[in-house]
C-alpha cells in the first residue's frame, strides 16, 4: 500500500507538471482525485490495511493528497499567467488610453434654458407658434401697416403662396391670444428670419424670446420690474439696465432695453438686448374681432410684451465678438462652454 501511494503520487506530479493547458490539468486532477481517481480508490483500500498500520497509511494518504492539491493549484496559476501573456501579445498595456469625448450643451441652448428657467419661476408658461407664418399673424394683427419697412420684400423671406418666414416671435403673442383668455402669461423662444446681409452681428436666422403678460391692472412698473429682475438674474445682480423710449407698432409706449457692459480695460458701453412695451389697444381690438368676443377688452385688461435676441444675450454673457461663431459648430470654439 505504501509503495502504491508513492507511485500514485509520483505519477500524478509528473502528469501535472506535463499539463500544457487547463484542460489537461483538469483531466489530471480527475484521474487522481476524482470519484474514481487513483488516490480516491487507493484510500478506499485502507479498510483492508492491518489495524496497526492504518494510522501510518492514513498519514501517507493525506500527505499525498495535500502535495498533489498544492501542485494542481500552482500549476493552474502558472498556466493562467501564460494564457494572459499570450492574450496581451502585440499589445502595449502601458500606452495611454483614448480619451472619451463628452458632449455639452451649445451656448445658445444654455442661455435659452437659463432664460426659460428664470421666467418660468416668475410664472410664465411656454408657448409656441409656426415659423412659416402669414402676414396677418406676423404684421397685421400686430398693428403693423402695409407700408411698414419690416414688411418689405427686401427684408422678409416670402413664399410664392404669400406666406413668409416669421421676422420675429411676436406672432406667437397673436396665436396665444386667439385661443387663451386673460390672465395670459407666456414666453415663446424660437427662430426668426430676416434677409439681412450676414456679418459679425447679423444672421438671416436668429433666435428670439418673446414674452407677453395680459391681465387686469398690468402696468409699466410691472414691465420694468420683471425685465430688470430677469436681466439681473441672467447677468448678475449689479447689472445696470436702461429703458430707452422707442417705437414698435404693437406697443404703446415702447422701449428698447440696454444693459451696461463692463469689459475689463474698456470704457463701459450700453448694449441693446430687447424691445418691449405696453400692448397697444389696437392689438386687443384686432384679437377680439377675430375671436368675435370681448375677452381682451382694452378697458378691462392691459398687458406688456417684450422680445429679446437670444444670440445677443449669449454674445454679451460670454463676450463673443462674432455671431457667426454660434452657427459654425467649430468644436474648438464650443469646447469653451462645456
Ligand atoms: N418683435 C420686435 C423685434 O423683433 C421685438 C419686440 C419689441 C417684441 C417690442 C415685443 C415688443 O414683444 O413689445 O424687433
TrEMBL record:
Cited PROSITE patterns: AA_TRNA_LIGASE_II (PS50862)
UniProt GO molecular function: ATP binding; magnesium ion binding; phenylalanine-tRNA ligase activity; tRNA binding
One example of a Gene Ontology biological process annotation: phenylalanyl-tRNA aminoacylation
Any matching Pfam family: Phe_tRNA-synt_N
Gene3D superfamilies per UniProt: Bira Bifunctional Protein, Domain 2
Major localization class: cytoplasm
Keyword Cytoplasm tagged: yes
Annotated ranges, domain Aminoacyl-transfer RNA synthetases class-II family profile: 109-316
Gene Ontology cellular-component terms listed: cytoplasm
Cofactor(s) needed: Mg(2+)
Coiled-coil intervals, chain numbering: none
Cofactor mode of binding and number, as noted: Binds 2 magnesium ions per tetramer.
Documented EC number(s): 6.1.1.20
Keywords per UniProt: Aminoacyl-tRNA synthetase, ATP-binding, Cytoplasm, Ligase, Magnesium, Metal-binding, Nucleotide-binding, Protein biosynthesis
Catalyzed chemical reaction(s): tRNA(Phe) + L-phenylalanine + ATP = L-phenylalanyl-tRNA(Phe) + AMP + diphosphate + H(+)
Signal peptide: none
InterPro entries assigned: aa-tRNA-synth_II, aa-tRNA-synth_II/BPL/LPL, Phe-tRNA-synth_IIc_asu, Phe-tRNA_ligase_II_N, Phe_tRNA_ligase_alpha1_bac, Phenylalanyl-tRNA_Synthase, tRNA-bd_arm
PANTHER family: PHENYLALANINE--TRNA LIGASE, MITOCHONDRIAL, PHENYLALANYL-TRNA SYNTHETASE
Family: Belongs to the class-II aminoacyl-tRNA synthetase family. Phe-tRNA synthetase alpha subunit type 1 subfamily.
Subunit annotation: Tetramer of two alpha and two beta subunits.
Name of the molecule in the record: Phenylalanine--tRNA ligase alpha subunit
Organism: Luteolibacter pohnpeiensis
Amino acid at each position: 500500500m505504501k509503495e502504491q501511494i508513492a507511485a500514485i503520487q509520483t505519477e500524478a506530479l509528473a502528469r501535472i507538471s506535463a499539463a500544457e493547458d487547463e484542460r489537461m490539468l483538469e483531466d489530471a486532477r480527475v484521474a487522481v482525485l476524482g470519484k474514481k481517481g487513483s488516490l480516491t480508490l487507493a484510500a478506499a483500500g485502507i479498510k483492508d490495511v492491518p489495524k496497526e498500520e492504518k494510522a501510518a497509511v492514513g498519514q501517507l494518504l493525506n500527505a499525498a493528497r495535500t502535495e498533489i492539491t498544492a501542485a494542481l493549484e500552482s500549476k493552474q496559476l502558472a498556466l493562467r499567467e501564460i494564457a494572459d501573456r499570450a492574450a496581451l501579445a502585440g499589445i502595449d498595456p502601458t500606452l495611454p488610453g483614448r480619451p472619451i469625448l463628452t458632449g455639452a450643451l451649445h451656448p445658445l441652448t444654455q442661455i435659452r434654458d437659463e432664460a426659460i428657467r428664470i421666467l418660468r419661476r416668475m410664472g410664465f408658461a411656454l408657448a409656441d407658434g409656426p415659423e412659416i407664418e402669414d402676414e396677418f399673424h406676423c404684421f397685421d394683427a400686430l398693428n403693423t401697416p402695409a407700408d411698414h419697412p419690416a414688411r418689405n420684400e427686401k427684408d422678409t423671406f416670402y413664399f410664392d403662396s404669400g406666406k413668409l418666414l416669421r421676422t420675429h416671435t411676436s406672432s406667437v403673442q397673436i396665436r396665444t391670444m386667439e385661443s387663451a383668455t386673460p390672465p395670459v402669461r407666456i414666453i415663446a423662444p424660437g427662430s426668426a428670419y430676416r434677409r439681412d446681409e450676414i456679418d459679425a452681428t447679423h444672421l438671416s436666422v436668429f433666435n428670439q424670446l418673446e414674452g407677453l403678460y395680459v391681465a387686469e391692472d398690468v402696468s409699466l412698473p410691472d414691465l420694468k420690474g420683471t425685465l430688470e429682475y430677469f436681466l439681473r438674474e441672467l447677468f448678475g445682480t449689479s447689472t445696470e439696465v436702461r429703458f430707452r423710449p422707442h417705437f414698435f407698432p404693437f406697443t404703446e409706449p415702447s422701449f428698447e432695453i440696454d444693459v451696461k457692459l463692463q469689459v475689463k480695460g474698456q470704457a463701459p458701453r450700453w448694449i441693446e438686448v430687447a424691445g418691449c412695451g405696453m400692448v397697444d389697444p389696437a392689438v386687443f381690438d384686432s384679437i377680439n374681432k377675430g375671436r368675435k368676443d370681448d375677452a381682451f377688452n382694452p378697458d378691462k385688461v392691459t398687458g406688456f410684451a417684450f422680445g429679446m435676441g437670444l444670440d445677443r444675450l449669449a454674445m454679451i454673457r460670454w463676450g463673443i465678438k462674432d455671431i457667426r461663431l454660434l452657427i459654425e459648430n467649430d468644436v474648438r470654439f464650443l469646447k469653451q462652454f462645456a
